[in-house]
């Protein structure tokens, strides 16, 4: 594979995450520059490009990928547009960082995986950024070293202050729990084999029709059980945490830290407001790792297999939500490229 000097990146999608990645590559990341930006909204994409030296605006991803200044692609468009963008990048054999989800369903994720396999080498890093968070990495290294023995269970919590308009029960799985799906598979190094969803009486703060909170249970191939409390209209801030229960002890991450205050007869501190603030460092580290590996001509991090497996668990999760049943996860055999 080619190795690069300064990597010319085309950022596809300039919504919340895309715009944040443009800023990140422009201001934080070394070894890369934003060579092109793409958005269907012509006025918006021009405004974004205007602020960056040598950056060309496009409304068509294929045209941006054909730009001679573009060496790699960061896909941050809505999930349903990912498949076409990924296949377009494969047609030019361009390295890709693809925001989660890889694609929104297992059938399209499998098509992407097969197309990458046809290239004969990995091209995609999937944006499961929690793998780059310092706390999650510390927990992963404790588990990998077997510090407290074999992990038996994980307890996850995932709370958002509120949800954007139009947020649905299915999005609670696809957008939110997809992170716990990925960290479960990564931390335990096991596939998830079945999903169950319990839906307590909803909070009065949830929009009409949203079953919030929910309790999601995973079983793994290794016999572990993992629970996730998902509460996306908790009202008080953003909290993501994970406690691993092992044979010889437990380890927990995700309690808010920062400045601890004593005043007026009370003690405490601030709760992080949202995921952009909570995972800012993880996003930075994720993009820097992608740029560094790409410049060396390598592909690292979460793969198309991880994106496909997450999509398969999400599909089972949505069926479990709808039926109240235990739903088994269907996966193809893991191809050699991803072992
Ligand atoms: C959002 O899309 C994210 O990726 C956040 O990390 C997650 O906490 C939130 O629930 C999702 O909607």
Could you characterize what this model shows?
This protein is of the alpha/beta class and 339 residues long. The chain has 2 domains: 7-129 and 281-302, Rossmann fold (3-Layer(aba) Sandwich); 134-278 and 310-338, Dihydrodipicolinate Reductase, domain 2. The chain is built from 10 helices and 15 strands. It has helices at 16-27, 42-50, 61-65, 82-91, 106-119, 134-145, 169-188, 275-278, 280-295, 304-323, and strands spanning 7-12, 32-38, 56-58, 72-75, 96-99, 124-127, 151-159, 192-198, 214-220, 225-231, 239-246, 249-253, 261-263, 266-268, 327-328. The chain has a 7-stranded mixed beta sheet, with helices on one face. Strands 3-2-1-4-5-6 form a 6-stranded parallel beta sheet, with helices on both faces. Strand 1 (7-12), helix 1 (16-27) and strand 2 form a beta-alpha-beta unit. Helix 4 packs parallel to helix 5 and helix 6 (134-145) packs across helix 7 (169-188). It starts with 6 loop residues before the first strand and ends in an 11-residue tail after the last strand. The mean pLDDT is 96. The chain binds (2R,3S,4s,5R,6S)-2,3,4,5,6-pentahydroxycyclohexanone. (2R,3S,4s,5R,6S)-2,3,4,5,6-pentahydroxycyclohexanone is lined by residues 160, 175-176, 179, 232, 275. InterPro entries: Gfo-Idh-MocA_inositol_DH, Gfo/Idh/MocA-like_OxRdtase_C, Gfo/Idh/MocA-like_OxRdtase_N, MI/DCI_dehydrogenase, NAD(P)-bd_dom_sf. Homotetramer. Keywords: NAD, Oxidoreductase. GO terms for molecular function: inositol 2-dehydrogenase (NAD+) activity; nucleotide binding. Pfam families: GFO_IDH_MocA (PF01408), GFO_IDH_MocA_C (PF02894).
